[in-house]
Specification:
Helix content is 32%, strand content 8%. The chain has helices at residues 25-34, 46-55, 90-99, 110-115, 146-161, 194-212, and strands at residues 78-82, 105-109, 137-139, 183-184, 188-189. The site of iron/sulfur cluster has 12 residues, from helix 2 and helix 4.
């Protein structure tokens, strides 16, 4: 019996079935990228131990083409943020992110990287790396198990599958903006917040000056 042809525009003649496959450029391109994601080799805290464990023989993320951890951001396309992000470290993390070429992805591994975790609101801790750089996949847990990390990496592969060459931001004519590196002083300052900080400071100074210029009988009387 004659096999029914599939209802696509590019039907393969029956005599070529099994020898010819028709697919899209997007699918080939994404298949190559999803199967060779190279993470940047760095870790921040206890979550990094789980990441190392996931790379080792029992879980072995080389099965996903991810075993080539690169010590240089110039050669990596995945920033795997594994651990507590401190105010001291965030300038370095943003600088590394800026140095990675497009297309690049960020995975926030664990409660600390995703939102501060047990140290949220701590004097030295950033409440989530996504306050500074865009995150593609969040992995919950403290720490996430190697299985959870693998699930996060598979989720990233699914995200890559959905991207299209036509709409990819790294091929657009507009240049991708670099993220301003945070400034570490007594506290960490995001340069993007400087206009808002200036405006707040000027408003407060104006309020203080207005209060100081009021006649004494209009100021609050202390009984
Ligand atoms: S999420 Fe938990 S295990 Fe991971 S770095 Fe934070 S405290 Fe450590």
């Amino acid at each position: 019996m004659k096999k029914a042809m599939s209802p696509t525009r590019y039907d393969v003649p029956p005599e070529l079935e099994g020898q010819v496959a028709i697919t899209t450029l997007d699918k080939i391109y994404n298949w190559g990228r999803r199967s060779s994601v190279w993470p940047l080799m760095f870790g921040l805290a206890c979550c990094a131990i789980e990441m190392i464990c996931t790379a080792a023989s029992r879980f072995d993320f080389s099965r996903f083409g991810m075993e080539v951890m690169r010590p240089s951001p110039r050669q990596a396309d995945l920033l795997l943020v594994s651990g507590t992000v401190t105010k001291k470290m965030i300038p370095q993390i943003v600088r590394l992110y800026n140095q990675m070429p497009e297309p690049k992805y960020v995975v926030a591994m664990g409660a600390c990287a995703s939102g501060g975790g047990p140290f949220k609101e701590g004097y030295n801790v950033v409440s989530g790396v996504d306050n500074y750089i865009p995150v593609d996949v969040y992995i919950p847990g403290c720490p996430p198990t190697p299985q959870a990390l693998l699930h996060g990496l598979i989720t990233l592969q699914r995200l890559i599958d959905t991207q299209s060459l036509k709409r990819a931001r790294w091929y657009s004519k507009d240049q991708t903006d670099m993220i301003p590196v945070p400034i570490l002083g007594p506290d960490v300052i995001d340069p993007r917040d400087i206009p808002a900080i200036k405006e707040y400071t000027q408003r407060k100074l104006a309020e203080q000056e207005a209060a100081a210029s009021l006649p004494l009988d209009e100021t609050v009387k202390v009984e």
